[in-house]
Design brief:
two-stranded antiparallel ribbon; 2 strands; 306 residues; globular; mainly alpha
Length: 306
């Protein structure tokens, strides 16, 4: 039986590849890398906003932020579970993160200095995440695609939460609007980096497109994000920090300045503003929770003996 031919045929017909199906080893490894990186990003992504739970300006904003941070933990759980269907253990996945072997999104290595940063993360970072993740609901690997259905619904709530914060600040006092503008200035280019390196330098993106894990390239998604976000910034009365941002009348696309890809490389390599702090906090949290995992395992063992 020609398993490669069956695999290729399923991709051509937009059918899901399931865990028990035969798949090329490179496809499996690419999925492990992408889905685990996605999962790591969700749990590391809890840290910048959790820092503001105790300092949220109202009880309502505190409750919403708590719900959002809890959602991110759930997203990590869905995605780790999906990755495990590819034959790798949760322990190995987390160990790869903790020793720096596995990557997570570079965006989470930047500091959240003010409450406006929480708004900017929701508006920009989660907005970019939605842009990237909607297409993943049609990813060729079934467990990944199904996990993304719920993730995308919850990310939409996160994006609305962030935009609401930015709206209140932008239409508030001059000092509040200045705070919102400052957050936009600092988060704009790191957000553009979230989509990954330019297509010309991304072999991972090329393979993901070939295997229909992704449906759009890094550059296509980045352009869609800029097109969507510019009118939103205009409504808020905020200025995107790009002097070369101009509308191309022929294509309808906004031409924009690329981020500093040297900075991207530094942050991804572990030399960003808060790489060591973020990863150190994650490792500490994991170690502090060891007793919970041990208790749960012991309970499950004893229950199985009854």
């Amino acid at each position: 039986m020609d398993y490669q031919k069956i695999f290729d045929s399923k991709l051509e017909q937009n059918q899901f590849i399931e865990p028990k199906d035969w798949m090329p080893e490179d496809y499996r490894k690419n999925l492990i890398r992408q889905i685990s990186q996605h999962a790591h990003s969700e749990i590391i992504g809890q840290l910048p906003e959790a820092n503001w739970i105790t300092r949220a300006p109202s009880l309502r904003s505190k409750l919403i932020l708590l719900a959002k941070v809890q959602d991110e933990g759930g997203h990590g759980l869905y995605l780790y579970t999906a990755t495990e269907t590819l034959g790798i253990s949760r322990e190995e996945l987390l160990n790869n993160l903790h020793i720096g072997k596995a990557k997570y999104s570079s965006i989470f290595n930047y500091p959240t200095l003010t409450w406006a940063d929480v708004g900017a993360i929701g508006w920009l970072v989660d907005g970019a995440a939605i842009m990237n993740q909607v297409m993943l609901q049609r990813a060729s690997y079934g467990p990944y695609a199904r996990a993304m259905v719920r993730v995308c619904k919850e990310e939409s709530f996160h994006q609305r939460q962030g935009y609401e914060i930015m709206t209140k600040l932008s239409f508030g006092t001059p000092e509040q609007k200045e705070m919102a503008q400052d957050a936009l200035n600092r988060w704009w280019y790191p957000t553009l980096m979230m989509f990954g390196p330019p297509d010309s330098k991304s072999s991972n993106s090329e393979n993901a497109i070939k295997w229909r894990i992704k449906r759009e390239t890094n550059d296509q998604l980045r352009q869609k994000f800029v097109n969507q976000t510019k009118p939103q910034a205009d409504y808020l009365g905020l200025t995107i920090p790009d002097d070369k941002l101009v509308l191309d009348e022929l294509t309808g696309n906004w031409k924009f300045t690329d981020p500093d890809w040297n900075e991207f490389d530094r942050v991804v390599s572990g030399n960003g503003p808060l790489n060591k702090e973020r990863l150190g906090m994650r490792v500490k949290s994991h170690n502090d929770g060891a007793w919970v995992r041990e208790a749960a395992s012991e309970y499950a063992r004893k229950k199985g003996e009854l």
